[in-house]
Amino acid sequence: MDLPRISRRPTRQVRVGELTLGGSAPIRIQSMTNTPTSDVDATMAQVSRLARAGCDLVRVAVPTAADAAALGEIVRQSPVPIIADVHYSAQLALAAVAAGAHKIRLNPGNLTDPRRVRQIIAACRERHVPIRVGVNEGSIVQRAQGDQRRREQATPLVDLMATKLAEYVAIFEAEHFEDLVLAAKSADAVTCIAVNRLLAQRWDYPLHLGVTHAGDVHTGAVRSAAALGALLANGIGDTLRISLTGDPLEEVLLAKELLCSLHLRPRDEAEIISCPTCGRVSVDLAALVREVRQALTGVGAGLKVAVMGCVVNGPGEAEGAHVAACAGATKATIYVDGRPVETVPNDRIAEALVERVRRYEAGLSG
């Protein structure tokens, strides 16, 4: 079946280590460690875990000299490019570049001396290190003080964020440095959509998407999907992070699902669909789906697997799936390519379904 495809906004390309961002390159998933960067073992354990889950780039915080000193070993061991997140200190930014960071996250508004910004630009140019330049709603509001605060608050927030970012971009373009990735984030999904649409109209630099301060996995997933999904569906965005309070692994898993749902990233395991539960369902469908999902981790790339709880929607979904199970009161029917192939007791649904998926993937009939 031919599925509709999203036409992406054309951008210039940026190299981050061995990866290309923007242009025709895949949309890259980013996350950030929450370990002290100075603890190389703990940080590398998390970087490796994120990379195995499908993360393309990992950002690490560099608030101290000890963190900057650890960067060299982290970069050496990392299976993915490492981004150094630096604020307030040009010295730490220069140390991160010297340590081999593949990309720098920098907010020029946090550096009061323009000469120091030019030093960072020169160091990044010499080592071919791109810079992500970003504005956050919180930092924009906090920076406005006194009469200036009142004047700026009279300006719509989206325009204010874009204007501030334009000031930052001008600093780099004056130095003929265009190896940039731009970002504008807010905790509000609608603001994120509006400001990134404006950025996409004004510049052809790659855009990094994210909702800042999104919350835990419950609120953060929805807010991020609302904002990032709307932008990605309109072809806007070249990298993304679903920022959550908690385990960064959840960020990667949610970002993968978002991209796969929009047909912007191929699935590396079976796509599982299941029906909403209702009074007709006579099996523990939620537990069954968890069991099937766990058993099919890394299995069945490109296959659609349906786990259905009753005969109302089950047969119809089975016709559209490669492999499906439709549960009844005491037994379930297993389908392959829309045709029933066997009936099993309800306590064997997961076992039979997984076996059929493995057979299908191996090219065995039935």
SSE blueprint and pairings:
Blueprint: E1 14-16, E2 19-21, E3 28-32, H1 40-53, E4 57-61, H2 65-77, E5 82-85, H3 90-98, E6 103-106, H4 114-127, E7 131-136, H5 137-143, H6 146-153, H7 157-174, E8 180-185, H8 189-202, E9 208-209, H9 217-233, E10 239-240, H10 248-261, E11 271-274, H11 285-295, E12 304-308, H12 314-320, E13 323-327, E14 331-336, E15 339-345, H13 349-361
Parallel strand pairs: 3-4, 3-10, 4-5, 5-6, 6-7, 7-8, 9-10, 11-12, 12-13
Antiparallel strand pairs: 1-2, 13-14, 14-15
Helix pairs in contact: 2-3, 3-4, 7-8, 8-9, 9-10, 11-13
Q: What do these coordinates show?
A:
This protein is of the alpha/beta class. It folds into two domains: 14-261, Alpha-Beta Barrel (TIM Barrel); 271-361, Sulfite Reductase Hemoprotein, domain 1 (2-Layer Sandwich), CATH 3.30.413. 43% of the residues lie in helices and 18% in strands. It contains 13 helices and 15 strands. It has helices spanning 40-53, 65-77, 90-98, 114-127, 137-143, 146-153, 157-174, 189-202, 217-233, 248-261, 285-295, 314-320, 349-361; strands spanning 14-16, 19-21, 28-32, 57-61, 82-85, 103-106, 131-136, 180-185, 208-209, 239-240, 271-274, 304-308, 323-327, 331-336, 339-345. Strands 8-7-6-5-4-3-10-9 form an eight-stranded parallel sheet. Strand 11 (271-274), helix 11 and strand 12 form a beta-alpha-beta unit. Helix 8 runs parallel beside helix 9 (217-233) and helix 11 runs parallel beside helix 13. 40% of the residues are buried. The mean pLDDT is 90.
